[in-house]
Structures are given as C-alpha cells and as structure tokens.
Amino acid sequence: MSRSALITGASRGIGRGIATRLAEAGYGLTLSARDAERLEVVADELRAAGAKEVVVVAGDLADDASAGRVVTAHADTFGSLNALVLNAGVGTAGPIGEFPMRRFAKSVDVNLRAPFSLL
Q1: From what superkingdom does this record's organism come (predicted)?
Q2: Mean pLDDT for all residues in the chain
Q3: Which of 4, 5, 31, 60 has a CA that sits 20 to 30 A from residue 95's CA?
C-alpha cells in the first residue's frame, strides 16, 4: 500500500523541506500553497526526488472552498491519508490596538479554522 501526505504551505521553507523528505521516502503528495507557479516547480522537483505522485492545489486556506478543494483532490487521488503537515500560517506583528480586524480574521481562518477543515 502506498503512503500519502497532504502538506500545506508546501511551496517554500519548512513545508518544502518536509515535502522533499517525504518524496525521498516514496510518499504520494498533495501540495497546497497560494502560488500555483511555484507549486508546479516544487512538484517537478519532488517527482524527481522520488514522490510516487504529486497533486498540486493552489489556493488561500482562509477560504473554505480552497480547503475543500485540497481535501477532495487528495481523497480522489490517494483515497487515504497517512500524514497531514499543517505548515501554512499567517501572523501580524505590532501593538494589539493597531491590529486590524481583517488581519485577525485572516489569522484565525488560516491558523485555526483551516486545519480543522482539512481533517
């Protein structure tokens, strides 16, 4: 049986590094991030590194529909999930009194609500 993983924030940094390790171990991967072009480049690298199959789903996890597309794409391709890497996240620095509510809402959506949507 093939192993599969879904990785958010997979186009760079820690998410890309984890995806590379899983590819080298032969996992099938579903990658999610906002930048479709960057995801395609990473997907090609992961296939070359040994990933059995790579599915790319670009979108903003603050949007419920994007999270749903990621889950559906993974389920349609792999059927099961062996690893879920919740690497996507946003934050804002500065005094709380100057923290705009739209940024607060985005932080909650990406950092808290999206992970539950992906389960």
Answers
A1: Bacteria
A2: 92
A3: 60
Model pTM greater than 0.90? no
Residue 94 has pLDDT above 90, yes or no: no
| Rounded Cα gap, residues 52 and 23, in angstroms | 7
pLDDT surpasses 60 at 1: no
Token duo for residue 83: 């690893």
* Residue 5: strand pairing partners: 29, 83
Please say whether the beta carbons of 47 and 24 come within 8 A.
no
Domain hosting residue 106, numbered range: 4-118
DSSP element (H, E) containing 73: helix 64-78
Which residues have C-beta within 8 Å of that of residue 26, sequence separation ≥ 6? 2, 3, 50, 51, 52
pLDDT digits 0-9 by tens, 12-33: 999 999 999 999 999 999 999 9
What is the token pair recorded at 49? 């590194």
Could you give the number of structural domains in the chain?
1
